[in-house]
Amino acid sequence: MSPDPLTHARAGFFAGVPLAGSRSPMNDWIDYYDSTHTIYASKRHRDLHFEVIARDIIGYIASSDSVVLDYACGEALSATMVADRCAMLILAEPAPGVRGRLIARFAPNTKIRVRSLDDLRKMQERSVDLVVMNSVAQYMTPDELDAAFAVVKRLLKPAGRFVLGDILRPEVGMPTDVYALLRFAASHGFLKDALKGLLSTALSDYRQLRSRIGLQRYGEAEMIARLAAAGFSATRAHQNIGHNPWRMTFVARPALTGLGLTHGSDGRRASDWQ
Questions:
Q1: pLDDT of residue 58
Q2: In the structure, what pLDDT confidence band is assigned to residue 257 with cuts at 50, 70 and 90?
Q3: Is the dihedral of CA 199, 246, 216, 115 positive or negative?
């Protein structure tokens, strides 16, 4: 349920593992999104953003007994919607300021747990039915993404699912993102606010960061291969999580090793598993 752009980890850690060497570009995004920012055009934009993502995540919950992990969840304003459809929702958020707000916001809800990414390393193996990592991969280096995949693989039950959403494609750039936002705004009654917000964003530190650092992009085959290397069998879903249909979502399961089988080897797409 992370926003796009994402609210993420504090300097020094990402994906639950220490970052070695010089300062990662991720840390610049971390600093930006752990501060006060105006990435949403209006309150209506912000609320709709999280509601759409929550509804999409609910579509992947197999049963009311499921344990669901939202990896790097951001503000997760509509988490209650998701928690109502599962047994437990774990909101893993590394940014201390955001995590503090999550704890305060959802303290009365006994089905929601708030954790840091570091806490995930202490969780029981094979204890989660569904892991969602939405609008996260573009802010990570490939090595950081692989480390995150390893954490997810350890936590996921053998029959569980890993939903990796909002992946940027190499051939799709910022103009398409702008068009997707304006289309979303026009259909939900905040077009004027969206136009103003785009102007503000163009003059903000966000635009400078995106131009200077860039965002990671992956082709469909490239991401499926990366997930396979991490021990998953994956296919691309017919529909992306969130409002932008030009980005991609993948649904992955732990590969069945030792039996000559992998989930999805029959050629079914991710929507066939829903």
A1: 98
A2: low
A3: positive
Evaluate if pTM is beyond 0.90.
no
Query: What domains can be seen in the chain, in order of their start residue?
Result: 13-172+211-273 (3.40.50.150)
What are the φ and ψ backbone dihedral angles of 251, each rounded to 5 degrees?
Answer: -115, 125
Tokens read off for 55? 């509804």
With the C-alpha atoms ordered 217, 79, 204, 96, is the resulting torsion angle positive or negative?
negative
- The beta strands (E) that lie in the chain are given as 13-14, 17-18, 67-71, 88-92, 112-115, 128-134, 156-167, 232-236, 248-254
The size of the chain, in residues, is 274
pLDDT in tens, 79-108: 999 999 999 999 999 888 889 999 999 999
The DSSP secondary structure of 32-81, one letter per residue, reads HHTS----SSSHHHHHHHHHHHHHHHHTT---TT-EEEEET-TT-TTHHH
Instruction: Say how far apart CA 161 and CA 144 lie, in whole Å.
Output: 20
Measured CA to CA, the distance from residue 76 to residue 82 in angstroms comes to: 10
pLDDT tens figures, 150-177: 999 999 999 999 999 999 999 999 899 9
Rounded Cα–Cα distance for residues 234 and 248 (Å): 12
